[in-house]
């Protein structure tokens, strides 16, 4: 199986240097989303002391013409620190810093979708919106072939791999365990993981997170996964349908609740929210993958535990529906619901914002309301 040349370097030699003291200095890795809306970039600067809050971190800049974010003639972009985590690769006191990107005129870059999400979340903070996102992904060799699959064929059909145990069922568990522990160290609200239906496909869950924290924690969890895979010499794909044919796609099921839904009798609020979602299906499909629904069209076929992209449906414990109400919620008459439509490569800021707009701000129609005016 094809793995990267970097992963074959002697890690014991690297460790000699990583064990050196760094005196009173701190390395801060600034992380941002590039112009594709899916790619993640990073670079590191030295700080003179350990930052305790986000306000302690300086703004920075980068060349946007090399990240699909600007032209070369006016390429400076600003990095605005937004969320800070412990660095599981360099360890304390070093930091990971998730940033928003501003253009030369200090306006949000086109793929800085955090900016609007934060404003929308601030409008509903009294409702205490909680989210939990189930991030599916596929491990690939550097040649794009699924990790552990035969070089000239396919593994056995789906069935034994979901939550599977054993070398013939679980492909790449070392990566999953490393990522889980790294997220815990960093302070990411990771709450679980499991092997998925297709071999070399896995899932981790992040949440519950309130408001803007959902997007922050999922993007950092994705960054950490990319870095862990880099160390192992393999590639992680968030493509919603990495292998065509009779294989499951990859989604990012999103669980959502408000204080009203979680309180006694909350099922009424859940049903009202689902009714609103049903009337705005096309808006949500456009918001739930970076290509306005084109990526999800390959995944949401009505097969392989998905709903049909053109139809809205909801049901208790139904994994073939757009919206699933867990059986326990139907029994307790309160709790949360699961939107199964978001794709694995969705932007969590857009997904969580769309849910709040429709369910809490009670927007209708195909176009989101502009609250900046």
Automatic annotation (TrEMBL):
Primary localization: cytoplasm
SUPFAM superfamilies registered for this protein in UniProt: Glutamine synthetase, N-terminal domain, Glutamine synthetase/guanido kinase
Enzyme class: ligase
GO biological process, one term: inner ear receptor cell development
Cofactors (names): Mg(2+); Mn(2+)
A GO MF label: metal ion binding
UniProt name for this protein: Glutamine synthetase
Stored PROSITE patterns: GLNA_1, GLNA_ATP, GS_BETA_GRASP, GS_CATALYTIC
Keyword terms of this UniProt record: ATP-binding, Cytoplasm, Ligase, Magnesium, Manganese, Metal-binding, Mitochondrion, Nucleotide-binding
Subcellular location field: Cytoplasm; Mitochondrion
EC number: 6.3.1.2
Catalytic activity of the protein: L-glutamate + NH4(+) + ATP = L-glutamine + ADP + phosphate + H(+)
Family according to the record: Belongs to the glutamine synthetase family.
Any Gene Ontology CC annotation: mitochondrion
InterPro entries: Gln_synt_N, Gln_synt_N_sf, Gln_synth/guanido_kin_cat_dom, Gln_synth_cat_dom, Gln_synth_gly_rich_site, Gln_synth_N_conserv_site, Glutamine_Synthetase
Record-annotated GS catalytic domain positions: 113-373
Annotated ranges, domain GS beta-grasp: 24-106
Keyword Glycoprotein: no
């Amino acid at each position: 199986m094809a793995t990267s040349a970097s992963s074959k370097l002697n890690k014991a030699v690297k460790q000699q240097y990583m064990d050196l003291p760094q005196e009173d200095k701190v390395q801060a890795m600034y992380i941002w989303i590039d112009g594709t809306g899916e790619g993640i970039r990073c670079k590191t600067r030295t700080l003179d002391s350990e930052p305790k809050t986000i306000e302690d971190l300086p703004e920075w800049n980068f060349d946007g013409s090399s990240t699909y974010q600007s032209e070369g003639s006016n390429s400076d972009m600003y990095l605005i620190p937004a969320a800070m985590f412990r660095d599981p690769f360099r360890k304390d006191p070093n930091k990971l810093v998730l940033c928003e990107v501003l253009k030369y005129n200090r306006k949000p870059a086109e793929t800085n979708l955090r900016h609007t999400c934060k404003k929308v979340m601030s409008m509903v903070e009294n409702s205490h919106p909680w989210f939990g996102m189930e991030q599916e992904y596929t491990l690939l060799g550097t040649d794009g072939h699924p990790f552990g699959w035969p070089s000239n064929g396919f593994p056995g059909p789906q069935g034994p791999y979901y939550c599977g145990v054993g070398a013939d069922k679980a492909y790449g568990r070392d990566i999953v365990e490393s990522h889980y522990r790294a997220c815990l160290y960093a302070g990411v609200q990771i709450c679980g993981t499991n092997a998925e239906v297709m071999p070399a496909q896995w899932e981790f869950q992040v949440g519950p997170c309130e408001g803007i924290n959902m997007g922050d924690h999922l993007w950092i969890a994705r960054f950490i996964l990319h870095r862990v895979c880099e160390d192992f010499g393999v590639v992680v794909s968030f493509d919603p349908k990495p292998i065509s044919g009779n294989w499951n796609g990859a989604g990012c099921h999103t669980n959502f609740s408000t204080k009203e839904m979680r309180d006694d009798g909350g099922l009424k609020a859940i049903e009202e929210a689902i009714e609103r979602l049903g009337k705005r299906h096309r808006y949500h499909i456009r918001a739930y993958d970076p290509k306005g629904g084109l990526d999800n069209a390959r995944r949401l076929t009505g097969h392989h535990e998905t709903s049909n992209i053109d139809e809205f449906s909801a049901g208790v414990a139904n994994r073939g529906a757009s919206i699933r109400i867990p059986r326990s919620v139907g029994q307790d008459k309160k709790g949360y619901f699961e939107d199964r439509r978001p794709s694995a490569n969705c932007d969590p800021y857009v997904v969580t914002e769309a849910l709040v707009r429709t369910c809490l701000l009670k927007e209708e129609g195909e176009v989101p309301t502009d609250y900046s005016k």
